[in-house]
Task: structure prediction
Amino acid sequence: MRTGEFIAYYLRSPLGIGSIAGTAGLAILGIALGAPVLPSIAAALGLAVLSAGAAMLGGLGARGIVAAREVKEENEVGGRIEEAERFRERLSRLRLADSEVSSALGAVVLYSGEYLDACKTARTYDPLANHALESALEVANLYLSELNEASVERRFSLPDADPFADSRIRVVAALKDHTRSIREGRIRIEGGLTARDRMAIEEELK
Result:
């Protein structure tokens, strides 16, 4: 851990917050009692440094830093999972007339649900799977945008201003690729075990 990170985590820990509050309180008290401003602040800071050093030597500071880091990581993981849930929710609301594209989109929604369940159980996430879910949403929106543009062009007999050759085939291929990435992410989170592997273990334990 870098020095800057170490200090940042310490300041976020209960001990660090208490040290800051105590430092400010001592400085204010000294000034209120008539002591010069700068010496009061310097004395309070010196006491804070000494108390922090003593806490580190005693292990309290290190434990506080570890706890603060764990809280930060948990918040980050929770944010990533919520973000992935929003992507999935938006995908689930899309309605596509083409059966093949709709089926490919449905697979993304289905397997992303399994992936998110694994994330919540393990309290972690897979960056590649999250990226695949976001990319699937972008692909689906791109396809819908192309359909809308094509509809307007047909209605007004306009030339295709932005040709998207083989759009359906390419979109289906992209969605299937993203589905595979999401499934692989779920497998990685679950320790690299496929459903067949997990079932085999369950049978052996009976």
Residues 60-92 form the longest helix (33 residues). The chain has two domains: 3-58, 79-205.
